[in-house]
Structures are given as C-alpha cells and as structure tokens.
Design brief:
- This protein has helices at 2-15, 25-39, 51-58, 142-147, 156-164, 169-182, 184-196, 203-216, 221-231, 276-287, and strands at residues 74-76, 85-88, 91-94, 105-108, 112-117, 120-126, 134-135, 239-245, 256-263.
- With 291 residues, it is an alpha+beta fold.
- The strands form three sheets. Strands 1-4-5-6 form a four-stranded antiparallel beta sheet, with no helix packed on it. Strands 2-3-7 form a three-stranded mixed beta sheet, with no helix packed on it. Strands 8-9 form a two-stranded antiparallel ribbon.
- Helix 6 packs across helix 8.
Length: 291
C-alpha cells in the first residue's frame, strides 16, 4: 500500500505540477494516459529494463479480470423537474421532456452520468465539476419547441449546443433562410423538424442537406431529408424536374425556377393481371345461369 501511494505522489509531482488546465474530464484523462505511456520508458534506479518491459513480464503472472465488470458508479433515483432536468450532486442534467414528473434511475460515475428510464438509456452527460452547473442537450427539448418555437432563440440548451459545435453555422444559415421566407414561428418549426432528423441520420449528412436547401432557397425539411439521404450514399434513383416557387427578386413575374429535388419512384407500376382469373370465373358462372 505504501509503495502504491508513493508512486501516486511521484506521478503527481512529475506530471501534474503545475496543475494542468483542461476543459473536461475526458481531456484530463487523455493527458494522464499520455503521461502514463511516457512512464513506460522510465528506468527505476540502475535497473537494466524499463518499467514497460517489467510490466509485460509481470502481467503474465496476474489473474484474469472477472467476467462481470465491478460497478464503480453511484446509483440514484431523482425526479425530473418541470424543465426536464434531474438534480444530481447540486448539478442539473437534462432528460427527454416526455419524462417530466417521472422518477428515473441515474448512474453517477467519476467522469460520466447516465440516466435510465427503467432499463432504457435515455441520456448521457459528462459529469459537471462546478456546483450549480447545467448540462442541457437541445435534442431533449425538440418536442416542446415544436409547440413553443419562440423559446428557442434564448434557450440555454441552444447556447450550449453552439459552444459544443453541434449547432453549426450551417444550422444558423438554414434557420435564417426559413425565418425570412416562412416567418419566425414557422421558420423555427422547420428548423426543429430538421433537428429531429439527427436522431436517425449522421450530423454530416444533415449539414449537407441543409447546405443544399440553402443553395436552392427552399426551407422544406423534406428537402433537407432527401438531400441528406443522397449525401449518405443511399440508393436514390434519378431525379425528375419539379417546378417550385423560388423568388428571384427580379420583379418581372419570373418568380418560378426549375430545380431538381425529387427522386423518381423506384417501385414497379401496378398490375391487375392476377385479377383476370376472376373475370373468367364470372363468365363461367353467368353461362351456367348462376350468380
């Protein structure tokens, strides 16, 4: 035990003085892992072999780890408040809005917090270090924002999404175009529908779809979905021309632009051949005098 404590002190003095400044626990863990890998090349005293070499010899003599992982988290059962948040160790974490008023199960680890609705994982957050901090995920509030789009511009969850880089300049460009053409409420609802696409498509695909929509001047979420699937490499058949209203700003009445947005239908044309046998049967029964 004394040797382990002494080694911990040596590691701290060599790699954590002065105290490292990081933005997250994950970044701190990466820094410590790099320092640990560096120590593999260290020699203790006048020994011939390095620490890493001796470890490779010693690990062969150790017993294997148990099949089931040892739970190192703290289990809690907080209640979701009216803002779709749970309070854990004086910090607030968001959960899907549909769980407001429910009691959920929380696993609080050293670096991560997980929220379960019964056995289903519904939220994952990086553990907050500052008392009174909030970790809000914008996706948890999308159903509420569909009904109250005016709450989005000043939402704390939106600001945190911007800071994290998940709400990009492409999102802002699509949002601005949608509000300019549809109005603030309808334009924000169109953005929310696009954000809902993130639940089943990759962010890069959604961004490609939004860039295409901005380029064509069409704020339709369906347009974004079609272009996102095309960017994902999905088998989309050849497009057909479609006339969509697109303002050119020339004021000469030529406000319709021909753009290509919709794929052709790959399904075969309907056929009624299998029903011909019913016609033959009807003729046979009529000839026999029976209906």
């Amino acid at each position: 035990k004394g040797g382990v404590e002494g080694e911990g002190g040596r590691f701290r003095r060599n790699h954590c003085v002065p105290m490292p400044r990081v933005d997250s626990i994950a970044e701190l863990n990466e820094l410590l892992a790099a320092a640990d890998a560096k120590d593999d090349h260290r020699r203790i005293g006048n020994r011939v072999h390095t620490v890493g070499h001796d470890w490779q010899q010693e690990r062969l003599l150790l017993r294997p780890l148990p099949a089931e992982p040892f739970p190192t988290w703290l289990s809690l059962t907080p209640r979701v408040d009216r803002q779709a948040r749970v309070t854990v160790r004086q910090c607030l974490y968001s959960v899907p809005a549909r769980l407001i008023g429910h009691t959920v199960r929380v696993q609080l680890g050293a670096a991560q917090l997980r929220v379960y609705d019964r056995t289903r994982l519904v939220a994952t957050h990086e553990r907050l270090l500052a008392r009174g901090g909030q970790s809000l995920i914008l996706d948890h509030y999308l159903e509420v924002l569909q009904r109250k789009p005016g709450a989005l511009p000043g939402a704390t969850a939106l600001q945190q999404a911007r800071n994290a880089g998940s709400f990009t300049a492409t999102h802002d460009a699509f949002w601005a175009m949608a509000r300019a053409q549809l109005g603030d409420s309808a334009g924000t609802r169109a953005l929310v529908e696009v954000l809902l696409l993130h639940r089943r498509m990759e962010p890069a695909q959604i961004e490609a779809g939004m860039r295409a929509a901005v380029r064509l001047g069409n704020p339709s979420p369906d347009m974004v979905a079609v272009e996102a699937r095309a960017a994902a490499g999905s088998p989309v058949p050849g497009p057909v021309p479609l006339i969509l209203p697109r303002r050119t700003g020339r004021g000469d009445g030529a406000d319709l632009a021909q753009v290509t947005v919709l794929p052709t239908d790959p399904r075969p044309l309907p056929a009624v051949d299998r029903y011909d046998s019913l016609l033959d049967l009807d003729q046979t029964t009529s000839a026999g005098g029976e209906r």
